Every structure is written in structure tokens, then in C-alpha cells.
Amino acid sequence: MHQQLQRQLDNARQRRHSLVQIRVLKTQGSSYRKSGARMLIDELGQHYDIVSGGCIETHLARQAMEIFRHGMPKILEYDFSDPDAPEWQISVGCRGKVTLLLERLGPDNHYASLALYLEGRLRRQPSWLITQITNGQSELRDCQTPTDTDTVVEFIEPAPRLLLIGTGADTDAIIELAQNLDYQVQVVGCQSLTLHRFQHRFPNLAQSVAPQQLDNYLVQHPVDYAVVMTHNQSLDAAYLSQASLAQLALVGMLGPLDRKHRVLDEMTSSAPVHLAAPMGLSLGGHGSQAVALSVMSQVQAVHHHMQAQPLSRKH
Length: 315
Description:
Largest sheet: 6 strands, parallel
Shape: elongated
Number of strands: 14
């Protein structure tokens, strides 16, 4: 989500256009989006992303036009469980409650809470976004402090950081999917030919880091998860032997099961505690896109502490 928000913010800044941001403050019961979700509406009424399944976006667009006119933030609550709901709510699929905050963002307020939210996502430590309802002013704080009833406080968790070790062509699909899922992606490699080709495709994304340099690199650029995919058995073993990977919540390696055993035999230290090899969930399919979906599904499940299963079996 934040990659799309960043693009819209950059575009608005370049054109010096104003936007109305709608963010979900809290939910109760069944709802399409949860707290922290955002959508943007421009001065023409076009919206980017949604906060419901399309049930209230038209109504929100009308509300946004009022925000453009008077400029003050506004809180709206929609109760989809109300049997006497207005006509525009009758067809909603969810039957919970959702509270939304509408804010005007523009050059005059430096795009306020949206710019600060995106800044907070890039930090390495959690932060709190504080917004004054009375005047729309926002600030980002490193710690939560007491606030009054006219203040909205939003906890911002840093975007998860994913390290890809290897610069082959199959990294492209994982990068695209991971970034769309709001992961901060870092790529390292030491194979000069594939690294050069990768840097041509993704300028400034990959760095040359040999296995013996990995620990020092991760001191400066810590990550949450890593995927080893050099397609070289000895290099995979060398990278996996580094102490900086030992305690990560998930370290994955591509390749079949018999290859895993050969890599483990070649390692000079114990394998990472949470090594997943082969990496990915069994979803079926062929090609780099299917591999990326399989890999990122496992990363996503671990990050959100979920057991991957069909929603129909979830109670």
C-alpha cells in the first residue's frame, strides 16, 4: 500500500495539487479494511485505493468535496450493522462498524499526516503519528505521550525489511511482489556478471557484498527476513554460515530438498534456527511469478504470525 501512496504523494507534490486522505481509525466486527488503511481522493473526485468493498466510496467522494472547500478534518462513523441504515448502506457486504478520518492534504500543510506516515514506515523503530482534529496539524513522535480528546494517535510500525541474497533474473518477481506488500527490499550479491545485469535493471538497489562481509553489512542495514538464492551451492553455504542470519525470524533458500542437504554439508557453522529450505508454500504453478507468490506467502504468514490456511477453515 505505501508504495502506491508514495507515488500519489509524489505526483501531487510535483503538480502542487491537493488531496483528501481518508484513513481508518478503528473498526468493530466485520470490515473490509482495518485500522491504518488509507485511500486518497483528488479534486476531480477520483479515488486511489478503497476503505470498503466499494460500498461507501461514492458517499466518501461527496464528503471529500466538502473537506476541499472548508479544509478542516472530519470524523465519520459508518455502522453497517444498523438495520435502519440509510439506503446507500443496504448492499454492504460487511456488518461491522468503521470510524474514518478525512483530512485535506496540500502544499500549504506539506501534505501533513500522509508524508509523516510514509516517513514513519521507513524508520527502523516504531513511531506515533499525532493529528490535531481542530486544526489538522500532525507530527511524528518517537514515543507515545498523553493527548486530549481532540487528538488522533496512530501507531506506525516500520515496514518489514526483506533481504534477497542473489541477483539472478528470478529476483525481479519477488522484488515486485514484496514491494507491493510494503516490504523494504534490500538485495546483495557478489557474482559480478549477474550483479551488473541486476544493477542495470534496478539501479542503486543491489550492493556487492561477499559472504564474509555480510555480518558487517547487516549491522548497518538490519533486516527481518532473508532469502538466499545465488543458485551457487558453495555461495549459498557461505552466506548461510554467517552469524547475522542465525537468529532471523525466517531465512529461506530456494532449490529442491536434496540440494538443501548438500548445502548444509558444505556449511562451516550451524544452519540458521528458522531455516526454510525449500523456501515457500506449496501453491502449485510454474515460473518466476509462481515462485515469488510461494516465497512471499510464507514470509507474509510468518510476519503476521499466521498459519497459512484457507479462510473457509478459519474460525
